[in-house]
Predict the structure.
Amino acid sequence: MGSGNGGREPRLQPVTRFGPGRRNRSPPAREEAHAMSPRTIIRSVRWTVRPDEEAGAPKAPLYHAECTTCHDTSETSEGDRIGPELWALFHVGKNPSHRSFRAISTAFWRVTPADADGVADPATS
């Protein structure tokens, strides 16, 4: 029926995938797939996430508010939400149609090896 192949059934071509974006390509060569690099992981290490208590890191979360109508922002407050909340109330008092705010809190974390024995910290080595 006008298929151009003499009335035969169309031939389906097999599609092979070898990962994202590798359609119909040969698989990577063994050397390419297992090449060592400076970033190769040789063993796994457990890590922990804790509040950052290093010098200079804020001791408490930082809070501020942003008006989603005009993008005006409050002062940043360390460890206390009252300042940004009061700012939002005063802002809506001055601008009655600005009733939507983004409350932003920022905490600082430090990630370290759980068992420091025999593990060099890449940030210091």
